[in-house]
# Entry
Amino acid sequence: MSAPTFLLRAASPAKSKADAVVVGLVPAPTSGRRKSGPRAVLAPGAEDVAKAYGRKLEPLLSSLGLKGQLGEATRIPTNGLLGSPQLVLVGLGADPDHTALRRAAGNAARVVTNCASVALALPADELPLLRAVVEGWQLGGYTFTQFRSTQPESDAPGQVVVLTPLARRKEAARLVEETQVVVRATEQVRDWVNTPPGHQTPPALAAAVAAAGAPLAKGRGATVSITVHEEAALHEMGCGGILGVGQGSAAGPRLVEITYTPKKPVAHLALVGKGITFDSGGLTIKPASSMKEMKSDMAGAATVVAATYAIAELGLPVQVSCFAPMAENMVSGSAMRPGDVLTTYGGRTVEISNTDAEGRLVLADALGRAVERKPDLVVDVATLTGHMVVALGDKVAGVLGDDATVGKVLESAATAGEPMWHMPIPEEMKARVTSSRIADLAQHDWVRWGGGLFAAAFLREFTGGLPWAHLDIAGPSFASGTSGHVTAGGTGFSTATLVDLARSLAG
Ligand code: BES
Ligand code: MN
Ligand code: ZN
# Structure
């Protein structure tokens, strides 16, 4: 989908000549509410629309039965009452903060079809709210049609006029531009996650990642460099984790390393992302129902790569070292076995007891490479465990690591509107990850409880004691249905958080 043009105007929504005008609805204050009256009222930003409708507004809202709840989005003809022929009423809920606006704008985007232009008269009178409207609108309208035999013609508005009192402020125009960089990164992650695994083996994903970054890496004075390590190089480097996981696949594993080096970096951030292009579980094979969405097991790699490119595009003064290990976890005569011992990058040995706990093995090598660069902060992103989904549901990511780094990530997540929750690494985990009788570390111990925490404790062994946070996005990286700005399939979850983290490190 091609991105619409966003324009900022301080104009009246009642006079707008756009093909549709979107206004917000909030629940009516219960105190002054009459029995037969509407249960919702127009939100700030729509005052002129309320005036244009006058006494017709109350009965209209009553008859539509709208409550001002999130999820509501209704399109009606204006019959000449407004400059625009159509009015879209979108529920914002009782607390229209940036999170609610992002969701509401996403819902609105899917209702406004067959229009060349649209005006958004939502309460976007502060910069974070304006950002949420732009993000929500564009992400909510995301589609993935590459694998349809006929391409549906997009009837999404090419021009989106955001009506806001901030329109004349320089920061507002800049914010919209920056927001679109982040949105495009999120869409890139969605595209990569949605691509079928047969079309996106590790070599194919590595090539796609390199192609996406090529414009940034081109020419003299380029600040981005991209290296794709193929199998022979991985052998030479001693990346036994990546090789072990990939050895059952007909498509060889890869490690993509990207560095972004701005002129005067004020901080150095390392990003590491799990890139399993398909996770069958290996010989410890998954049941069918757990395997069906495992093309999404490369979401972490897609996220750190897209975030790195976005940070470079924004020119943030933060050096980024990005590591994306890629492998396909398959069943075959050459597959890694339970009982095998792998030697990870740097020499530490790991006893395998469950080939389905593969993410931590590719991350071990990549983290080992990352800490060698001596970054100020290491963040890894991975669809690592079903345990985290059991604990937090499929909308919330777990964040584990040292308190200070976890705190920074949570702050950025709040700014980005991406729900995350601090999970602990209990002390007992240290003994569990070192419980192998024959190798340095145990990859897994078949104790049923705390598997997501065990996984983090295992990863911690490879962080060299640096400030570190681990994001387990197994739940929110993939959505079973569409709602708000989150569309079914790959979500791009945590891309915006990583970019904001770099922004906050930049000060
Ligand atoms: N890729 C899965 C985790 C996953 C589960 C991602 C659900 C998305 C949705 C991971 O490789 C895995 O299989 N984890 C195991 C770990 C266990 C063997 C310790 C799991 O969750 O069962
Ligand atoms: Mn697995
Ligand atoms: Zn996996």
User: Anything to note?
Assistant: The pocket of manganese (II) ion (ligand 2) is lined by residues 279, 281, 356, 358 (CB under 6 Å). Residues 5-168 form a domain with the Leucine Aminopeptidase, subunit E; domain 1 fold (CATH 3.40.220.10).
